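step: validate -> pass
step: tokenize input -> pass
step: predict -> running
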Amino acid sequence: MTKTEKQILDNVRKLELLEREFKKFNYETATPRNSDESISFLREIIRIAGEAFTTRNKILEDFKDVTELNIQDKQALGLLDSVRRNDKLYSIAFYENVGGIINADAENQENKMPTSIEDILNDKFEDIFSDFHSWFDVTSYYLAQITIGPIISSFKIPSYLLSYFTEIKETYAFGKYRASVALCRALLEMALYRKLKAKGAFRDKDPKVTGINVAREDNLNRYINMAKWEKVLSKDSLDLAHQIRKTANGVLHIKDSEKQLNKKIVVDTIFATLRILEGLYR
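step: predict -> pass
step: emit ->
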């Protein structure tokens, strides 16, 4: 178990105890008999709730640094699920309600209580900013976007295709190469389907399943073959389309090992997708 995993487990167990303490104190403490007892009660219950709030946020912040958590403790697992789903624990809901009341009367931002993980992260903005830029290179990000450039076409491209293309540029700029290639495949499949449908290629038949052989064939391969019959793609574009499909399948359909992609393969796949899309809309 890594240090961060142990820290999460320790904190989730602490949170469980704090939630139990909060309920016990709230429901089993005698009703305050005077203002001093009321103040004492409020101070203690806010202390417990505030500690639960802080502990929950430490768990959420640590989530950023782990990909998996191997925990056998069923109670801890259940509470971690609740934290991830942002289910409201009694203690934290109480703290947030108190914070909301206080913040409503606060004169400025400095006087407000943090009532969410977003507030906590905003308070740590300078540290987060430094951490982010310890690995993220702004110049390289913009250079990658510039390298890919826009889709250059004669006719307007549907907005949902442009949306996928924008995500391709984003994932490539962030160095998420497998995601970029997978999105190239999705964009190509959508673009071909739209063009084939416009030509009436699916008329009087289900475009998804038309027979046992079709059912065993992936949609993109079928659309590429249909694009050949319908003369939607040129010979060069057909070759490019199959290359995109094969590269993406190597990422999406791998069985038991990790597929690595070098930058050149990814750039070639993106530009191949660009050339096909531009050819469809010129």
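step: describe -> Residues 138-280 form one domain.
step: cleanup -> pass
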